[in-house]
Amino acid sequence: MKSHFQFSNQQRNGIFLLLAIILILQCAYWFAPKLFAGSKNEHPENKKELEIFKHEIDSLRLVEIENKKPKIYPFNPNYITDYKGYTLGMTNEEIDRLHKFRKTNQWINSAKDFQSVTKVSDSFLATISPYFKFPDWVTNPKPKTSYSNSYSNSAKPKTYNQKVDLNLATASQLKKVYGVGEKLSERIIKYRDKFKGGFVSNVQLSEIYGLSPEVIERINFDFTVKTPRAIEKFNINTATRDELVTIQYIDYEVANNIIEERTLREGFKSLEELTNVEDFPIKKIEIIKLYLHL
User: Fold this and answer.
1) What 8-state DSSP symbol labels residue 176?
2) Which pLDDT belongs to residue 45?
3) If we measure between CA atoms, which residue out of 137, 143, 109, 113 comes closest to residue 125?
4) Beta strands in 161-265 (DSSP E)
5) Which tops the pLDDT comparison, 79 or 40?
6) Are residues 243 and 190 in the same domain?
7) What pLDDT digit, counting tens, does each position of 96-122 carry?
8) 158 and 206 share one domain
9) Domain extent for 273
10) Residues 208, 150 share a domain
11) Where does a domain end: 197, 224, 251?
12) Which residues on adjacent β-strands are paired with residue 75?
């Protein structure tokens, strides 16, 4: 036992030095954080600058969230698809009402019309109506007074020779008709130029978006097709299915239905009897009749 507790002077000094080092390290461990805390207190943070910095970060975060949201660009509500309506927040019933209305070949020309057709709420209408974009002839109609004055001077119907050939008419000539502005006149000429030879008949004006029946009537007052485009006409009582499907608005299903109805009737007596064919596009019969004969 004595051998374990008897030390020389040098060993005792080493033990005391070791104990002193341990004690110093312990003190440093306990008091160092307080010293550093004291040093921090000597340089207090600027709370106002910190608040400004946090506010900037929050603002940037909000901007980023706003940028990630889908953007709404001006659009014509007459052409809202199922997907477009879904992204806008419309219900399936509201979208179906719109599509059903458009199938009747009618147009929505104001936010009020849109609500009356789709039955959307006032709050929803207030959200999306600022993005509605209608044709110029709807948003900026010409004064009615100018029309009444100019039209009264030529109330008497014009003869065939007095009218301008619709296939040769220029945009400036078309713009003289009340209700036909710059865009509509360009749209008429663009539609005419789609076909080599232009219009076949004035009835094709109903195919051009934006032309109301009233405007078409005014165009017919001053213009008519004098040089119609040459087209192939088919005998409705002998035309094959492949011939019928070349006609605009007639697909294979309608063509088969026409042939079945023709067989049952033992031939059509008039082109108007086509309206009795199942799934026949009745509203387009005047266009279809251009390509048929008895």
Assistant:
1) T
2) 59
3) 113
4) 164-165, 223-224, 234-235
5) 79
6) no
7) 999 999 888 888 888 899 999 999 999
8) yes
9) 234-293
10) yes
11) 224
12) 132
